[in-house]
Automatic annotation (TrEMBL):
This is ---NA.
């Protein structure tokens, strides 16, 4: 139900860059009850969630720094530094089924 971004599951970027992680959803937005983004080095708490088709609920205390959620499944990490190193998990619940996809970001 989730396809990896065109860049695959690993992104290597320079400090100060913005990183766009654009997962692709293979389900209709109307079938989604939850979308969430988690930065695994900070634990299992999501730093952004969308319930049904509502607005993004941001919890910046669980993110490594500034970010934006765009469209249906895109995470943009802004002006990255070493704090952004780690694995990002995108999770969805569609028709009662949980699906997860992990992407790792390395700051070179």
């Amino acid at each position: 139900q989730i396809s990896l971004p065109p860049g695959g599951d690993t992104f290597v970027v320079l400090p100060g860059e913005n990183v766009t992680i654009a997962w692709k959803l293979d389900v209709s937005i109307s079938d989604l009850s939850l979308r969430s983004w988690t930065f695994l080095p900070k634990g299992d708490n999501s730093f952004a969630e969308i319930f049904r088709d509502r607005d993004v609920d941001k919890k910046p205390q669980y993110s490594p720094g500034p970010f934006t959620i765009k469209n249906n499944a895109t995470l943009i990490l802004k002006n990255v530094n070493i704090q952004y190193n780690g694995t990002y998990r995108f999770s969805i619940v569609a028709k009662g089924k949980l699906t997860k996809s992990d992407v790792t970001v390395f700051i070179a």
